[in-house]
TrEMBL record:
Keywords: Magnesium, Metal-binding, Molybdenum, Molybdenum cofactor biosynthesis, Transferase. Its EC number is 2.10.1.1. This is Molybdopterin molybdenumtransferase. Catalyzes the insertion of molybdate into adenylated molybdopterin with the concomitant release of AMP.
């Protein structure tokens, strides 16, 4: 295998995106009650105005606003009640000057009326009329036709992750089957002779497997479908068999460990063996995360990734590469950032971008970003982190008080 030069984060992303754009878009339609958390696969345009009729936001009387001018607590105006409109039924009679109709919250506003006086400001005068003690302006307490969504208006964009509030918008627009991207199928492979399951006490020289659990949790968090997960000894044949099998059904195959240059580090060779035309990145100018491998197989349309064995580094690279790529291909917006003042001077790694984990502390007028220092194998560094900030390759570091952008984890 011909190893390429170490790429910057942006160079690696560009290569990854260029390769993965060849994947066919996988879209499916799901019922509205199954759409929560899914990514919308097309722009949605409303075929009708929402609401489709004028409705009241309060219990009250639909009036001509001009007929209430001059009304007050001591000087009411008197209007004839011509109709009591029930919720869910159409208004029948047109309101003429000097008239009104009772309308409940959500009820239809009759023709001729342009405002609603709340019942609290009205009282019965006799069987057919009321006294009104409030002057209202046109449009008061009225939702107009199309005020929520105009007819033929774009109301949800492709790439929107559907939350409960978007489900409500879809229901209001009558969308009962929703076009969404199919979740990526992912296979997680962890390698290492030293790894034992989390429920097993390690012997001297052994450690509990972390990466499998971390990568599975991240996959679920971002809506991927975990097809398989396994922990392998550092034997090339086992890795070859696992990768070949995973590529039959998965969009993404992730192997953590074995990505460096040691005697038992087979990941780069194996991924290059199965990727056509081959691995295009072996090494990223990133701390932590330098021993990262990226490839793509055009035949099976499978993205292949080799992640560092250290759990924190593997998690960071998965976030910066796999999650970023999925966001690009499904047209999702960039993640939310906040700004903060760095608490202390921080040196960066020469020639490499540095992913600096930080804790955020409230401060007068904003946040303080407190750097979390620790080796990449220590998971507690990630558990304390609220987010991370990237120090550019060409930047020597950060100065105390410098304002940085923090991506929230």
């Amino acid at each position: 295998m011909k190893l390429l030069k170490v790429d910057t984060v942006n160079e690696a992303r560009e290569k990854l995106l260029a390769a993965a754009r060849k994947k066919k878009k996988q879209i499916e339609f799901v019922n509205l009650n199954e759409a929560l958390g899914r990514i919308l696969a097309s722009d949605l345009v409303s075929p009708e105005p929402i609401p489709s009729f004028r409705r009241s936001t309060v219990d009250g009387y639909a009036v001509k606003a001009v007929n209430t001018q001059g009304a007050g607590e001591s000087i009411p105006v008197f209007l004839d009640v011509i109709e009591r409109i029930e919720i869910g039924t159409p208004a029948i009679r047109m309101v003429q000057p000097g008239q009104c109709s009772y309308v409940p919250t959500g009820g239809m506003i009759p023709e001729g009326a342009d405002a609603v006086v709340m019942v609290e400001y009205c009282e019965a005068f006799d069987e057919k009329s009321i006294a009104v003690y409030d002057a209202v302006s046109p449009g008061r307490n009225v939702v107009s036709i199309g005020e929520d969504i105009q007819e033929e208006a774009l109301f949800l964009k492709k790439g929107t992750r559907l939350r409960p509030q978007e489900i409500g918008v879809l229901a209001s627009a009558g969308v009962h089957t929703v076009p969404v991207y199919k979740p990526w199928k992912i296979s997680i492979i962890s390698t290492g002779d030293e790894l034992v399951p989390a429920d097993q006490k390690p012997m001297p020289g052994q450690i509990r497997d972390i990466n499998t659990y971390v990568l599975e949790a991240m996959s679920i968090k971002y809506g991927f479908e975990v097809v398989s997960k396994q922990v392998l000894r550092d034997e090339r044949s086992l890795l070859e068999e696992a990768v070949a099998e995973a590529m039959k059904s998965c969009d993404l195959v992730v192997a953590s460990g074995g990505s460096s240059q040691g005697e038992k580090d087979h990941t780069a060779d194996v991924l290059d063996q199965f990727a056509q035309p081959g691995v295009f990145t072996h090494g990223i100018a990133l701390k932590p995360g330098k021993p990262t491998i990226l490839g793509y197989d055009v035949i099976s349309e499978t993205i292949l990734m080799g992640l560092p064995g250290h759990p924190a580094a593997a998690m960071i690279v998965f976030e910066l590469m796999a999650v970023w790529l999925h966001r690009q291909l499904t047209h999702q917006p960039e993640p939310k950032y906040t700004t903060a003042a760095i608490q202390t001077n921080v040196a960066s790694a020469p020639g490499r971008a540095t992913c600096l984990l930080v804790e955020l502390e409230d401060s007068e007028g904003g946040y303080i970003a407190k750097p979390i220092f620790g080796k990449s194998g220590l998971m507690t560094t990630l558990s304390r982190a609220h987010g991370y900030t990237m120090i550019d390759t060409n930047k020597e570091g950060l100065k105390e008080g410098e304002i940085v952008q923090v991506a929230l984890l």
